[in-house]
Q: What sequence folds into this?
């Protein structure tokens, strides 16, 4: 681990984005976007399809590697030159608009993969199965079990199943568990409720709220279901055509004419 | 029956050697869908380092370690400069791999010349008789090393954090990196593992056939690559199965038909599998990633 990861500055902002501009060829996907996720808060990001929400998350998480203008700070660190895996190590993780799991791995193996960056014993010790490597592996498996337990009996009995055999909702739970295994202080959630029925949506909403309360985990939530945004987010940013058109509490932005126009055309 | 058993054991011995060489292809292809055409040259160089040191009086264990280190260092350089800059491109890695392979071979010619030489190695002369079966101690060494390396590979792939990361990179490289896997480090480790298996295979190959040549990178590659295709390119267990099958088949053809048909049978098998069973006996889909 590098020095800048160990010496994370104490800041009040889990995520701070200033004047982010992103162009794909001649298309401006994001134009001067500024957004802050205070430490311990859940912030919403909404907007019509094609407004730039996923582009924003891709830049922040490092999935997009090309040039951009502006500044992105995660837990106080400028991440412009930081590869994606080091952003994960610095306390940021994400889930994807469509669930992206490692299909040849089991539930437990998928979740354990999230802890990869925190292994301290190294590849050689792992291959030689030295006592410290065995202890670390046991500790990680215990941690994975605790994370699976957050979802009650949804994942624990299925720990050894291939993820392809799971229901969509359980695949989403595995993806969230894998993200939690990276020990994030900032979690980027790109439409986590997509494809879930009302009961599953309510259950996951409660679980995200519990995570936020119990671990003071900051979250940026991109979501189309306004009830979820209303339940979880104190502050919401509205993105339209790559520009933040307004921000504020859900009740306020829902009355904003610019927002109504953006969503209804 | 005695002749058959002897040929079978000869074939299995060759097969283990082919399998060790083939693992380098399958590991890399399994993860990156790239055929590592430089692999043969990398293990050739490592094998020559070991052979030279043994010839100069170096202890066997130290010579083997030096050969492994040489193979690993070259594999790291090849990955860094010939593969990584063109990763994701379909054609370019093949061109850069062949190019860097020829550079390695030319450097080897400068150091060791083009002369075919014997491989100095213990256990090459004695014979053990177990009833009707005739064995050389070297065959036992090859079998033991082969089983040990297969077990090591099984542990790495199924029991370690590295193996899990390798499988994750194979499934979805971009997501693996976003989840904190240092993909470049994992990939270079895969190249190094392939090179280590290759150098061990190269040493056993040289010792078993008691011949070394700087062209062994190419010739060894033909058998190893055929074994890889038979087994199912991308499957390390398929590589072992393909190596054993090819080794036994070659031994039977040599024993019962004619050694002149060896290459015909090998390439015939390669073409037949590519045409009629491109997924190999392990059934690995060759082009699973768009």
A:
């Amino acid at each position: 681990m590098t020095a800048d990861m160990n010496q994370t500055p104490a800041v009040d902002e889990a995520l701070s984005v200033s004047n982010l501009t992103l162009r794909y060829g001649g298309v401006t996907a994001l134009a001067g976007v500024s957004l802050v996720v205070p430490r311990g808060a859940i912030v919403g990001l909404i907007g019509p399809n094609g407004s730039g929400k996923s582009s924003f998350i891709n830049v922040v998480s490092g999935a997009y590697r090309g040039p951009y203008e502006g500044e992105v700070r995660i837990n106080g660190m400028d991440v412009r030159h930081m590869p994606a895996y080091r952003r994960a190590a610095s306390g940021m993780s994400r889930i994807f608009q469509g669930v992206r799991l490692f299909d040849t791995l089991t539930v437990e193996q998928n979740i354990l993969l999230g802890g990869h960056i925190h292994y301290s014993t190294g590849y050689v010790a792992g291959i030689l199965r030295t006592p410290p490597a065995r202890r670390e592996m046991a500790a990680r498996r215990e941690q994975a079990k605790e994370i699976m337990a957050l979802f009650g009996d949804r994942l624990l009995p299925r720990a050894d199943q291939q993820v392809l055999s799971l229901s969509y909702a359980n695949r989403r739970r595995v993806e969230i568990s894998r993200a939690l295994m990276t020990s994030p202080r900032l979690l980027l959630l790109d439409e986590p409720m997509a494809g879930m029925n009302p009961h599953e949506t309510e259950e996951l909403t409660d679980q995200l709220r519990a995570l936020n309360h119990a671990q003071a985990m900051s979250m940026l939530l991109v979501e189309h279901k306004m009830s979820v945004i209303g339940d979880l987010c104190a502050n919401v940013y509205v993105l339209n055509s790559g520009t933040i058109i307004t921000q504020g509490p859900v009740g306020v932005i829902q009355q904003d004419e610019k927002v109504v126009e953006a969503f209804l055309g | 029956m005695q002749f058959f058993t002897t040929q079978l054991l000869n074939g299995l011995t060759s097969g283990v050697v082919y399998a060790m060489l083939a693992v380098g292809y399958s590991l890399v292809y399994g993860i990156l869908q790239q055929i590592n055409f430089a692999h043969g040259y990398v293990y050739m160089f490592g094998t020559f380092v070991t052979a030279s040191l043994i010839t100069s009086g170096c202890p066997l264990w130290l010579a083997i370690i030096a050969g492994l280190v040489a193979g690993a260092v070259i594999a790291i350089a090849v990955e860094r400069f010939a593969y990584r800059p063109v990763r994701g491109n379909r054609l370019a890695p093949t061109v850069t791999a062949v190019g860097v392979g020829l550079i390695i071979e030319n450097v080897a010619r400068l150091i060791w010349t083009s002369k075919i030489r014997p491989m100095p190695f213990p256990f090459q002369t004695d014979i053990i008789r177990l009833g009707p079966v005739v064995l050389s101690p070297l065959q036992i060494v090859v079998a033991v090393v082969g089983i040990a390396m297969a077990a090591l590979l099984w542990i790495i792939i199924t029991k370690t954090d590295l193996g899990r990361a390798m499988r994750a990179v194979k499934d979805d490289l971009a997501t693996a990196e976003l989840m904190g896997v240092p993909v470049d480090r994992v990939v270079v480790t895969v190249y190094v593992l392939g090179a280590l298996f290759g150098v061990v295979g190269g040493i056993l190959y040289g010792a078993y056939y008691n011949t070394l040549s700087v062209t062994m990178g190419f010739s060894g590659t033909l058998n190893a690559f055929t074994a890889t295709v038979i087994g199912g390119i991308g499957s390390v267990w398929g590589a072992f199965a393909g190596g054993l099958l090819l080794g036994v088949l070659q031994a039977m053809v040599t024993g019962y038909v004619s050694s002149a048909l060896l290459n015909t049978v090998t390439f015939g098998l390669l073409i037949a599998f590519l045409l009629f069973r491109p997924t190999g006996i392990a059934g690995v889909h060759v082009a699973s990633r768009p």
